[in-house]
Amino acid sequence: MNIVKFLYVIVRLTTPLIYGTLAASITFKAGLQNMAVESMMLASALTGVLVSAYTQNIWIALLAGVLASVLITLIISFCAFVLKCDLYLVGIAMNTGLVGATVFTMFAFTGSKANTASVLPSLAVGTWDVPILKDIPILGDILSGHSIFTYFAFVAVVLVWVLIYKTKIGLRIRSVGENPLAAESVGISSRKIYFLSFALSGVLSAFGGMFMSMGYLSWFARDMVAGRGMIAMSAMNIASGEPVGSAAAAFMFGAADAFANQMQLWGIPAELISAFPYFVTIFILFVMSAVRKGRDAAGKRHQAA
Amino acid sequence: MKETRRIEFFFEIFRIVLALAIAFGFTFICIAFMTDDPLEALKAFALGPFSNMRRFGQMMGKFIPYLLVGSGMCFIYAANRFNMGGEGVYLLSGCIVTFIGVNIGDSGIPHVLLVVLLMAVGVAIGAGAGLIPALMREKLGVNETVISIMLNYALMYLSTFLVKTLMVDPNISYLGSKPLPDNMKLTRLVPRTNIHSGLFVGLLAVVVVGVIFYRTSLGYSIRICGSNPQFAKASGINMTSSLVLAQVIGLGLCGLGGAVDIMGIYDRYVWAGFTNYGFDGMLVAVLARKNPWLVPLGSFLLAYMRTGASILNYSTELPFEFVDIMQAILVLLIAGEHFMAGFKNKIIFSASKAKNKKEAA
Amino acid sequence: MAEVLRMQNITKIYSNGFMANKDVNLVVNEGEIHALVGENGAGKTTLMKILFGMEDFQGGQILLDGKDAHISDPLDAIAKGIGMVHQHFMQVPSLTVAENVTLGMEPGKGGMFDHRQAVKMTQEISDKYQLKVDANARIADMGVGLRQKVEILKALIRNCRILILDEPTAVLTPQETKELFVQLKALRDSGISIIFISHKLEEVMELCSRVTVLRAGRTVGSDVIENLNPASISRMMVGRDVVLKIEKEAAKPTETVLEVSGVSRRSKEHVTVVDDVSFGIRRGEIVGIAGVEGNGQNDVAEMIAGMASIDHGDIQVNGKSIKGKKIRQIREQGVAYISEDRMTHGCAANLPIRENIMADRVHSKEYKKFGIFTDTKKINQHVEELIREYEVSCDDASQPVRMLSGGNIQKVIVAREFTSGADLIIANQPTRGIDVGTTEMIRKTLVRKAREEGVATLLVSSDLNEILEVSDRLLVMKDGKIVAHFRDASQVSEDLLGEYMLGVKAMTAEEMGDLL
What we know:
The complex is a heterotrimer of chains A (305), B (361) and C (516).
Chain A: H1 3-29, H2 37-55, H3 58-82, H4 87-110, E1 127-128, H5 139-143, E2 146-147, H6 148-166, H7 168-178, H8 180-185, H9 190-216, H10 228-238, H11 243-265, H12 270-304
Antiparallel strand pairs in A: 1-2
Chain B: H1 2-34, H2 38-51, H3 53-79, H4 86-104, H5 111-140, H6 144-166, H7 198-215, H8 217-227, H9 229-234, H10 239-265, H11 277-287, H12 295-316, H13 322-335, H14 341-360
Chain C: E1 3-13, E2 19-29, E3 33-37, H1 44-51, E4 59-64, E5 67-68, H2 74-79, E6 82-85, H3 97-102, H4 115-128, H5 144-156, E7 162-166, H6 174-189, E8 193-197, H7 201-207, E9 210-215, E10 218-224, H8 230-237, E11 256-266, E12 272-282, E13 286-290, H9 297-305, E14 312-317, E15 320-321, H10 327-332, E16 335-338, H11 342-346, H12 353-358, E17 368-369, E18 373-374, H13 376-389, H14 406-418, E19 424-428, H15 436-453, E20 456-460, H16 464-470, E21 473-478, E22 481-486, H17 494-501, H18 509-512
Parallel strand pairs in C: 3-8, 3-9, 6-7, 7-8, 13-20, 13-21, 16-19, 19-20
Antiparallel strand pairs in C: 1-2, 1-4, 4-5, 9-10, 11-12, 11-14, 14-15, 17-18, 21-22
């Protein structure tokens, strides 16, 4: 097994997870249970592909993808905070609904229900051979030549961190998340903050979704997000919503995905490989929560003593 | 006060009808845009399922599994533990049932015994798989929805793998299992349609679930835990066992749904991806407002919608995925407590004012 | 001295008909510390909520500096110079002092939060008013006394001229209280008027220049401190306008059912809320715990019910300890609990009356047929009987509880708890906010249960009528300790009770005698 190639693949596969986990962490900080990252990613993935094909302009396509994702968040926010639907249920409904909705829209525009590959001349965002870095042995092979989305993902981690911890909006989001009464007592509207944090989450998810359909491939396929939104959410939970920690946790899951890829070379049947990352996610969550439970119990015993 | 209750009752119906109207309205807009003859299309959608026996049978073919997954998801919804593993469980159950059926179906085992055995297998698979997210939530505090969705994908791929390796039919052009022996197929109640004896199983399941919900202490406990966990604890209810059982039974029924579906209308196992029956079950539970006795109504409504969409797809090329969108709209509007709540409260308020005026006069 | 605030003839009636304030008058002068005292339910909190724009009112007016002021919401109140330090701090624990204080008016350009500027602003205010805090410290790492200073700074940085403090010393140590007083006096001297809500009469005497007393929603009196003493304030605060006597025979208590020995408990903030409490209750008697809310009685009730943990000491029911046991086990030992917050712990609002009543007994063999199915006939009989007996006004047993009035919801809860076969019933504020008819019924039933069925009862209540008329024996708690024990509650006058409740007097161990 080529370790260097393996690490390169990990970085590539973790990209959408990083966006997803950042998206989830913003809403987490606002105190919300955001299950709907999948739906946001699907919406932007399809929109980017469609718009880039029709306008042949990558920038407009990116913008359209972001707008599509934010629109989804507006629907979610409306249903959850105005109609008072259980946020959980809204997330689940949107995730499933969007799978069908994207297929439907794809069909409406292309006549295909499986994917847009042969039908649309969609654009892809290119890769970048980073100058200087690309010539460094080993490190260069791992980190250079990735999609621009990947590099932007790292930038996004920094941006989200700055947003949450260094801006006024971030301060308000954290206040509403921890103690909505405290925020309301100084005139901050919790509802407005909820809408805003979902919208920001949508922006980040959009890049994750568009990476899938415009970064590595240049087409949209049915249900192409395939649970990555959920996996990203798990990474966020492991790191308790901290943006940097969540991104780090995302790598763990990306590694599982990359390992699955590797297994292809060992002749393991394709379906088992596909199933592997999901089994691994369950396992990782099991281990981490068992460890946490053990630590809490030990802490309690220590306290009582 | 009976007045308030009557108003609330009619309002629930009004809300559901309004939500349906909005969902159907959306459909009509899609139809208008994407077909040449919108009125014909609408006719096909609305009346299609009743136009002939075969189509009616198609609708019943969906109705039957909906009874099972719908009543199963009532447990999930009532317990407030969104274990969505129904999708994966449906597939795996169908797959294992196919495997067993193909291997022992022609070995001389009596039909009834085989059918009952396979159904039991379906339940067991569902229950066993459902246990994983349930235990991880109750014992470790892990989000059961995430685990259940991971499980769905895992079981889906696993099922495809099992079909490919254990029972694939090399003589056909698409992916499918060897043909199912007649011995394991459920009797057709109306020949050459999809109306099969699984209907009795479905109706029986609804009755069993209704009885469990309202006539057993387990049902009481599950509903109380879902309604107010703090009260449940203060009353001394064993929350862990109630909630785990709710999820296990719920998913067991989803597994049964998969088994009954395979035995009912298929000649071989051909599922290559999610069937959507898992989430459909959730919608049925939402339409039925967590009340098992209303599951047949919800199941019928959903079966009708999906069949209409399928017919529409056949005659106009409109993809039936628009039903997924309709479904999402319905769930969001119906489960949204405040949907029309302001209007409802106004009516209740003015009714009580009128009553006070009358009594004062 | 100029008048800075005048609340005149304020009347507030809630939508359920409850009159929280009736013709209340409050006048605060510039640069004075004005005490607003009254029992729980007297209307002080409502009055302050009205002043702070959190509630509307039906009658009267508010004048600020002699001019009519229409205060629409808390932001408006803040803009008009009114600041409020709530009893439960409105702070974000993981943020720093500077972040909490400047929240909502954060300094910084271009959307970025300038933390250094925020620290500077906070430090300025802190120095100006001598409220020493470290602006960079995290709230979560700070003790209660410091956190309170932060709450005050939040008000000061918004230029408040009238500062309302709601029971500020409830969570402070004696040392912190001394410090707070020094600061409040300094604030007063710098021209800020302070409204000091408290039950602690010693503090009121020390700190305040004028006192207004509320009782049952009305202003009972207002005077300068020189003309008052704790006893006279206590007499104004504690009293019943209407005495509702309950007919009852003398209690004939037998074996001990409940034994509380040396029980102590600390709150989350490490304040001792229950301090070495010991007492007992026997079959057939009703023991009441009187006291101003927040002096530990609620914690004692919750510890016996299993809702709160016991840090030190032991509690035994029927001779068996309940320490560390689950609620289910405690109930099985014979304990029933009418909880203070009925909607959270007392019922499942969306479920029918039947399910709410059966919640604790649906598992028992008595209501089962063939071991698995519930005996519907028996259950319906049982529920309907209870609905009749407790006069629950409803359509039928299938009606969801949320559709009932507050009083009827409590009847359902009481019906369940009273028929759970318990040897010990804990009633925690059982008739708060309930209509007169239901209140009378619940009190009579409490007495009946004790006399006819020999149930031991613990009654925790801030309603004087209730505690004096229903209890056989009476305990008074203050600051987590038992400070009085009356063997015959009917012999206790309101004045005397008030003095113990407010800490004017306290019994010695000898005077209290055997508490078991």
